[in-house]
Amino acid sequence: MNRVILLTACVNPQGMIFTKLQNPGERLKQYQETLIWYLENTNYPIVFCENTNTDISLEYKQYIKQNRLEYICFDGNNYDKERGKGYGEALIIEYALSHSNLLKQADQIIKITGRIIVKNVNQLVFGAFRSNKVYANRYKNASGLLCDSRFFISSPYFLLQFFLPNKVELNDSKGYYFEHLLYNQIREYLKKGGGYSEFYLPLKFVGISGTSGTTLNQKTYLKAFIRFVLNKFQYK
């Protein structure tokens, strides 16, 4: 199966609501550290897509020359900031799918928020062996049922036919986040015969939350497996 990592990035949030980490220099440093980590610790082709026209592709020209990396940047952060970063991330995914040669050849897209390192990414991808399934962890909070948007795996088909056509619904100010849309469109995908699974391994995140500015917590293997078993037949 042809798998491609998609790292989404926004170096300069320009006052985006619900975004604690606003400093472009600090954000850029984190993106650079994360990109190098994935280049050195995985064998998958990588698409790095950034939406504030921050072009540092010359630093990675050797990887680009080897067709290991596609570096894409565009001016995509000039929408109404009240919509929030979830809408911006959907625009990044849409732009990447339209302009990336690597993604056009992909059977599976490993979508990762670009400042987060998923330490066990190789093991997680190894377990995601069905191209017609969306792999994502769901959870519940005061706003309802959601799916974790920081790391999920899907086919381009799911994103193009189910998720992106409904991106206009995203509005953080009104309490409808990327995570809500991902959850709801997976439900629609299942109705049309698609597949879904949570990860049976924990998501071993390393990084800082852009929303809260706090260090991300790592789950244990036992807790991850228990939630996988409990949720396996209960997608609601």
The count of helical stretches stands at: 8
C-alpha end-to-end distance: 29 Å
Give, in order, the helices and strands: EHEHEHHEEHEEEEHHEEH
Structural class: alpha/beta
| Subunit arrangement of the protein | single chain
Helical content band? 25-40%
Main-sheet strand order equals 3-2-1-4-9
Largest sheet: 5 strands, mixed
3D shape? globular
Which stretches of 5+ consecutive residues score pLDDT under 50? none
List how many beta strands DSSP finds.
11
Radius of gyration: 17 Å
Mean pLDDT: 91
Proportion of residues in extended strands = 15-25%
Describe it.
With 236 residues, this protein is α/β, with parallel strands linked by helices. It contains eight helices and eleven strands. It has helices at residues 24-41, 61-65, 85-99, 101-104, 121-126, 156-163, 178-191, 221-231; strands at residues 3-9, 46-50, 69-73, 108-113, 117-118, 133-135, 138-141, 144-147, 151-154, 195-197, 205-206. It has a five-stranded mixed sheet, with helices on both faces. Strands 5-11 form a two-stranded antiparallel sheet. Strands 6-10 form a two-stranded parallel ribbon. The radius of gyration is 17 Å and the shape is globular. 40% of the residues are buried. The model has no long low-confidence stretch (mean pLDDT 91).
